[in-house]
């Protein structure tokens, strides 16, 4: 009897976790933290997990790619980085691979023609708290997201179909084709607040981002 109860309790917990994940991986189109970008027939909607930025704290986003074209596209959705420009007070969160690191093709996720897929990722920008304190008006004020997709998949079909989890080396020809096939989509900037203390103003969304490894 106890074994059966434990079994059903475990099943219920698994169902609850999947339901929570499904709810989390959505875009609220009315949220002020939402950003939008479109390049021809590929549309990207994104939403910041939090609207307060702190030194050493990752910036998490949920984003969806809607492929309105007649052919599939692909994205290196696990590749993300963040940089800060103090002149414009803007943090740029980059998702995807503009330049394949070490000449290796990253793991890609394909979005079929007419399909929509949702992803979650994040990165931590390098912000010097001392420099921000020393210069008035140097604190981050905006976050801009840019997403790089691979449009022409034909030259990379063999690598995309390979059953491997490891990065694969690109030939010189494919390396050049990568740049020709890449397209970067810039989303509108989203205003954020800055807290000089790591974790300042952290709410439930921020804690979720930290626990998710963003």
In short:
With 214 residues, this protein is α+β, with helices and mostly antiparallel strands. It has helices at residues 2-24, 129-134, 157-161, 172-181, 204-211, and strands at residues 34-39, 42-48, 52-53, 59-67, 73-75, 80-85, 90-95, 104-105, 109-111, 116-123, 142-150, 168-169, 182-186, 190-191, 193-194.
Task: Describe this protein's structure.
This protein is α+β, with helices and mostly antiparallel strands. It has one domain (31-211). Helix content is 24%, strand content 34%. The chain has helices at 2-24, 129-134, 157-161, 172-181, 204-211; strands at residues 34-39, 42-48, 52-53, 59-67, 73-75, 80-85, 90-95, 104-105, 109-111, 116-123, 142-150, 168-169, 182-186, 190-191, 193-194. Strands 6, 7, 11, 13 and 14 form a five-stranded mixed sheet that branches. β6 (80-85) and β7 (90-95) form a beta hairpin. The longest helix has 23 residues, at 2-24. The chain is globular, with a radius of gyration of 20 Å.
Q: How many strands, which pairing sense, and closed or not: the largest β-sheet? A: 5 strands, mixed
* Secondary-structure-derived class: alpha+beta
Give the % helix: 10-25%
Number of strands: 15
Low-confidence stretches: 6-24, 200-212
Q: Using the alpha-carbon principal axes, give the shape.
A: globular
How many structural domains does the protein architecture include? 1
The average pLDDT is 82
What Rg is obtained from the alpha carbons, in whole angstroms?
A: 20 Å
Q: What portion of the residues fall into strands of 2 or more residues?
A: 25-35%
Separation of termini?
A: 41 Å
Series of H and E elements: HEEEEEEEEEEHEHEHEEEH
């Amino acid at each position: 009897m106890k074994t059966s109860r434990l079994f059903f309790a475990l099943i219920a917990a698994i169902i609850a976790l999947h339901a929570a994940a499904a709810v989390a991986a959505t875009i609220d189109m009315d949220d002020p933290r939402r950003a939008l970008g479109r390049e021809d027939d590929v549309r990207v909607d994104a939403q910041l997990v939090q609207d307060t930025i702190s030194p050493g704290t990752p910036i998490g986003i949920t984003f969806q790619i809607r492929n309105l074209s007649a052919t599939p596209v692909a994205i290196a959705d696990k590749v993300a980085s963040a940089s800060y420009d103090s002149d414009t007070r803007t943090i740029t969160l980059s998702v995807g691979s503009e330049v394949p690191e070490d000449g290796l093709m990253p793991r890609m996720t394909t979005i079929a023609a007419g399909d929509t897929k949702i992803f979650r990722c994040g990165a931590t920008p390098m912000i010097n708290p001392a420099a921000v304190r020393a210069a008035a008006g140097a604190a981050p004020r905006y976050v801009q997201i840019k997403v790089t997709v691979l449009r022409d998949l034909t030259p990379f079909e063999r690598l995309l179909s390979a059953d491997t989890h490891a990065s694969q080396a690109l030939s010189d020809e494919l390396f050049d084709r990568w740049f020709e096939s890449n397209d970067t989509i810039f989303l509108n900037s989203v205003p954020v607040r800055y807290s000089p203390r790591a974790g300042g103003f952290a709410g439930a969304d921020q804690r979720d981002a930290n626990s998710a490894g963003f």
